[in-house]
Structure formats: C-alpha cells, structure tokens
Amino acid sequence: MFGKKKVFEDLPNTMVLTTKEVIANKRGILFVSHDADDGMWQFHCGTDVDMEDAMMVALEEIIDFDPAITAIADLPLGWVAWREDITSPWKREEAN
Questions:
Q1: Computed from CA positions of residues 52, 11, 45, 76, in that sequence, does the dihedral angle turn out positive or negative?
Q2: Residue 18, in any domain of the structure
Q3: Confidence band of 4 (pLDDT split at 50, 70, 90)
Q4: Cα–Cα nearest to 69, from 11, 39, 40, 28
Q5: Which of 24, 28, 59, 72 is the most exposed place for a label (fewest CB within 10 A)?
Q6: 88 within a domain of the structure (yes/no)
Q7: Rounded Cα–Cα distance for residues 51 and 19 (Å)
Q8: Residue 86 maps to a domain
C-alpha cells in the first residue's frame, strides 16, 4: 500500500471521496482533486458525479486500487489532476 516510505502527507486511514463507479465497477481513476477549502481528496473516473453514487473510503484503499495515483501525492491544495486513460501521464492545474 504505502510501501516502505509514506507517499501522501495524509494518514492511510484518511477518508477520501470517490464513487461506486470507481470502487464497485472498477473504473479507472482519471480525475483527482485536492480541495482548497477542506483538504479533501476526490478520486473519480472522469464522468459526471451523481451524489447518490458518492462513497467515502480510506486513502489506502484508493492507493491499493490504483497505485499510479502516488504520482500525484504532492498535488497542492486547490489543484486538480487528470489523465486521458489509466496508461496516460497525469496533467495538473490549479482549480478555478
């Protein structure tokens, strides 16, 4: 999960927001936000988010599901990252 070195500043049991599409349907994570107002991490598959499908899970579960997100562990508060597909590199920008 976190390996020998901690990648995220947040604890492994920090709750993050994702969707049933990601967890239950195994859709790849293509969009990530690190919210400026509360520090919340959000991990989505790139489709519009229906709040009925929202789920809270531990950060370690998301990392286990998609270890590639460790590449954006340093994403600053108020920034987003995205990729075209699960094999593409992450792109980043400050959120509007």
A1: positive
A2: no
A3: very low
A4: 28
A5: 24
A6: no
A7: 8
A8: no
